[in-house]
Amino acid sequence: MGTQVTVCVRLGLDHLTAWLRIAATHGENPRGRLAGNATVQRKFFLRLAKFQFATFLLLALVCGGLSGNAFAVHHATVQRAHHRHFRWLRWNPMFRPSHESLLIQNAEINRLELPRIQDETELEALKADGSLLEIRSGETLRFDPRLDPSRRFCRPWTLDFVDDLSQAYYNRFHQQIQVNSAVRTVKVQKKLRRHNRNAAPADGDTASSHLAGVTVDLQRRGMSKDQVHWMEHYLFYMKALGLVEPEEERHQWVFHIMVSGLYSDWRDTQNIIPVEHLDEHPDQHPDQNPDSDRPATQVALGGGTN
Q1: Judgement on whether residues 200 and 106 belong to the same structural domain of the protein
Q2: Of 57, 161, 195, 211, which residue is 20 to 30 A from 282 by alpha carbon distance?
Q3: What is the pTM of this model?
């Protein structure tokens, strides 16, 4: 665009110079032409020169404006690209949601032969026979107030996991874990899909695992970097044992955690739940203290018997 402006200016100057030369030539009277005719011609060509000069100025202003707009568009494009790159760098979770993860969650539900809860009638029946247990708030756990109390339920082994995790998190940070979602019905999931395009389907091989009562969403928004890091390490250990299938959802900013039916059996064999080392000095990482005889992970909870 800068080249176009230069060309416009050069053309305008050349054109104006040519007209001024013509006006000057006609203004002379070497052959003794009448003075009146010379005066008329001079005035005519001066007016013409002024018109040409005004046209040149208008052309220069238009070219300059186009150049400024082009620069602004280019600058905005660079800014948007930089912003997208920054957001990609900032959002780099350990457990990125994927199609494969949804397949794993549904495979576990099928292995356990659990039904996808269709409506409130089926939900209440499962509560009544003890297949779904209530998640209770307390010192270590709270709920998103928007979560319907009738849906603050989950499978027994999922409740064990939530209790263990919330206690370990409280021991480490002296803060509560927040439960944003637990069991859902197919009817609720379909309604959610109408408002949230990122929600999982209500049926099929990639249906939401909330429909079987094995999954909870724990609040990620508001956690510090250290808290997120701690959660990811805790879940990494559990996933390596095949006990959970976690995802870190970006749009809802939650840890979506499907708990395997194997969790309670595994828990009964444990006295401890390994978590990241808790030091008396929170700002000191155990790897920075080579003289310490304490392990990089330590026991947080008593669970069962050896």
Answers
A1: yes
A2: 161
A3: 0.64
